[in-house]
């Protein structure tokens, strides 16, 4: 039997709009959660004075989350549909936890934006949409949830749909091509089976929509890039770098260049063997996690954060770069001279903010007028950055997969963004 294709789907939305409940109900109705476990969760929800929260508890396993009733971390669940193997990422809606949501969005092929029918669009709904776009999530479906709280009325659904459509237009998503689902996570309406409470609704159920998203295209037409996660020394084989092929196709016999390498100027070599799950492969396309052996490259030459590139089309090392960033969770403000650690693919390099060019209006995506001295939480801006070490980076035009980054400081993600332009380091 052919293996089912994998797809990562993230659920995002404003706090308390019912994301975790929708996901939990989906788990129950698709038979992933046994009845006796459900009963235990139901009893616990009632004991905590939160009846109806049992579905959310499935995803919110952390004790603190149960007591506060908000999702803090990312929860992952595997789900097998008729067409696919789906990894569901339930991302936090609460504003303190947007940083985790970014991590989730950056791994997702598609997203469900969850909006409660009664409350409609909230300030964070806009923020989540922008972040999904910045992190490169192309496919979005909209879950209009809690339809039971508005007596399953079609006009309420239409009103919210109109509001969201306006918003989608602003961030550059075609509302005409977007699927809007009328559901109730709590009552199970249109989650797995069609609901009899909304005979007017002709769209898919949440379960059906999982298979209706377009197949994500592995980026095999881009030049080969494999960021190194670890380097092992294996007896009888030698040095084995391990990592995920992000773009292109890695082939045995291929001439490669490791950047920046220990020298900072790159090391040339040739792929001798490729192994995945203890099997020898002739080639590994984008998406595969592999270990490889390279002729002419020893353990001292390479390390985590280096990128193995096709020698004919190597990546760039940035002297300085321009980026669009979103500030998520900074304790004070970001100003010129700030030097946090940038996490790009598997590399961690300190980089300095050399200039704040301009802010971007989150509602329109247009540049805002006026000089900017500092950035605070919630700001989106264009900035100039100078790496304090050798950093392999490409622009979104050249390769979006090696253009995204997260900015971390003192153990927290303070911002995230994408490189839009760069000056190449001469090596």
Which key features would you list for this structure?
alpha+beta; six-stranded antiparallel barrel; 427 residues; 3 domains; Elongation Factor Tu (Ef-tu), domain 3; six-stranded mixed β-sheet; 23 strands; Rossmann fold; globular
What are the SSEs and their pairings?
Elements: E1 5-13, H1 19-29, H2 35-47, H3 54-59, H4 63-68, E2 75-80, E3 84-90, H5 98-106, E4 110-116, H6 123-134, E5 139-145, H7 154-170, E6 180-182, H8 206-212, E7 225-234, E8 238-244, E9 249-251, E10 255-259, E11 267-276, E12 279-281, E13 283-285, E14 289-295, E15 307-310, E16 318-327, E17 334-335, E18 341-344, E19 347-360, E20 374-375, E21 380-387, E22 404-409, E23 412-424
Parallel strand pairs: 1-3, 1-4, 4-5, 5-6
Antiparallel strand pairs: 2-3, 7-8, 7-15, 8-14, 9-13, 10-11, 10-15, 11-12, 11-14, 16-21, 16-23, 17-20, 18-19, 18-22, 19-21, 22-23
Structure in a nutshell:
The protein has 427 residues and is an alpha+beta fold.
Task: Give your account of this protein's structure.
- The protein has 427 residues and is of the alpha+beta class.
- It has three domains: 5-212, 3-Layer(aba) Sandwich (Rossmann fold), CATH 3.40.50.300; 225-310, Translation factors (Elongation Factor Tu (Ef-tu), domain 3, Beta Barrel); 318-424, Translation factors (Elongation Factor Tu (Ef-tu), domain 3, Beta Barrel).
- It is 19% helix and 35% strand.
- The protein has helices at 19-29, 35-47, 54-59, 63-68, 98-106, 123-134, 154-170, 206-212, and strands at residues 5-13, 75-80, 84-90, 110-116, 139-145, 180-182, 225-234, 238-244, 249-251, 255-259, 267-276, 279-281, 283-285, 289-295, 307-310, 318-327, 334-335, 341-344, 347-360, 374-375, 380-387, 404-409, 412-424.
- The strands form five sheets. A six-stranded mixed beta sheet has the order 2-3-1-4-5-6, sandwiched between helices. It has a six-stranded antiparallel barrel with strand order 7-8-14-11-10-15.
- A hairpin with a 2-residue loop joins strand 18 and strand 19.
- The longest helix is centred in the middle third of the chain and has 17 residues, at 154-170.
């Amino acid at each position: 039997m052919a293996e089912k294709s994998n797809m990562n789907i993230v659920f995002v939305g404003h706090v308390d709009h019912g994301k975790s409940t929708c996901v939990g109900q989906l788990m129950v109705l698709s038979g992933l959660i046994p009845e006796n476990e459900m009963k235990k969760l139901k009893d616990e929800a009632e004991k905590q004075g939160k009846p109806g929260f049992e579905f959310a508890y499935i995803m919110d396993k952390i004790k603190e989350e149960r007591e506060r009733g908000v999702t803090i971390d990312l929860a992952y669940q595997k789900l097998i549909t008729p067409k696919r193997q789906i990894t569901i990422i339930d991302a936090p809606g609460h504003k303190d936890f947007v940083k985790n949501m970014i991590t989730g969005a950056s791994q997702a092929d598609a997203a469900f934006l969850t909006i409660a029918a009664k409350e409609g669009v909230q300030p964070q709904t806009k923020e989540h949409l922008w972040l999904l776009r910045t992190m490169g999530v192309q496919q979005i479906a909209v879950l209009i949830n809690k339809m039971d709280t508005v007596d399953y009325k079609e006009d309420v659904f239409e009103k919210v749909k109109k509001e969201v459509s306006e918003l989608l237009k602003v961030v550059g998503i075609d509302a005409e091509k977007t699927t809007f689902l009328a559901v109730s996570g709590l009552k199970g309406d249109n989650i797995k089976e069609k609901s009899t409470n909304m005979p007017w609704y002709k769209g898919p159920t949440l379960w059906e929509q999982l298979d209706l998203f377009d197949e994500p295209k592995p980026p095999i037409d881009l030049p080969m890039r494999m960021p190194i996660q670890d380097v092992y020394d294996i007896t009888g084989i030698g040095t084995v770098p391990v990592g995920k092929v992000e773009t292109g196709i890695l082939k045995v016999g291929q001439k490669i260049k490791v950047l920046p390498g220990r020298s900072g100027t790159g090391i040339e070599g040739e792929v001798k063997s490729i192994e995945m799950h203890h099997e020898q492969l002739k080639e590994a396309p984008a998406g595969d996690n592999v270990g490889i052996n390279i002729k002419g490259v020893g353990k001292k030459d390479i390390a985590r954060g280096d990128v193995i590139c096709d020698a004919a089309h190597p990546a760039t090392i940035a002297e300085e770069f321009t980026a669009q960033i979103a500030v998520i969770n900074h304790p004070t403000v970001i100003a010129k001279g700030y030097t946090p650690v940038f996490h790009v693919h598997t590399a961690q390099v300190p980089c300095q903010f050399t200039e704040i060019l301009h802010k971007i209006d989150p509602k329109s995506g247009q540049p805002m007028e006026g000089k900017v001295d500092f950035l605070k939480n919630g700001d989106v801006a264009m900035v100039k950055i100078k790496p304090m070490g050798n950093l392999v980076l490409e622009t979104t035009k050249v390769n979006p997969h090696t253009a995204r980054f997260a900015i971390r400081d003192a153990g927290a993600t303070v911002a995230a963004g994408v490189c839009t332009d760069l000056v190449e380091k001469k090596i």
